[in-house]
Amino acid sequence: MTLEAPTSPSADPAAAPAEPSRALEATIRTAGLVVAMLAAVFSAVLELVLTPLRVGGVPIGVAVPAAVVGNLAICWFALTTVGRRWALGPPWVVWTLITFFAAAGFRTAEGDYLISGDNWVALVMIFVGSLTFAVYLYRQILKQPPVTKM
Fold it and tell me: What keyword terms does UniProt attach to this protein (predicted)?
C-alpha cells in the first residue's frame, strides 16, 4: 500500500494562504473608515488651532501646509483600508463641516470668534484643505483599472 500525495491544491493547507473571512474584512474596512473620520476631526481642530500663529505680528500660515499633508494622509489611509473610492467622502465631509462651522462665526464661551473675518490663513486653509480631498479623489477616478490577463 502506497501513500499518494493530495491531488487538489486545496487539500494541502500549506500550499495556499488562508483567505480572511468576509466578516473580518468588513470589520477592518469599517474600523478603517471610523479611524479616517476621527483623523479628519483631529486634523481639522489642529489646523484651526494653528491658523492664528504669528511671528512678530505676521501670520506664518503653517496651517495651510498642515492641511495639505494631513488631508493627503487621511485620503491615503481611507482608500488603503477601505479599498473603495467612496471612502474619501465621509472624512472629507467631516473635515469640511468642522472648518465651515468654525468660519461661520460661532463664538466661544468667552465671546471670541473661532476664525475672525480678517484671518486669511484660515480661509486659505479651508480652501486648500478641501481642494486636497477633491484633487486626490479626482486622481483616483482618472486612474485606469488594472488590466487582467486571461
Answer: Membrane, Transmembrane, Transmembrane helix
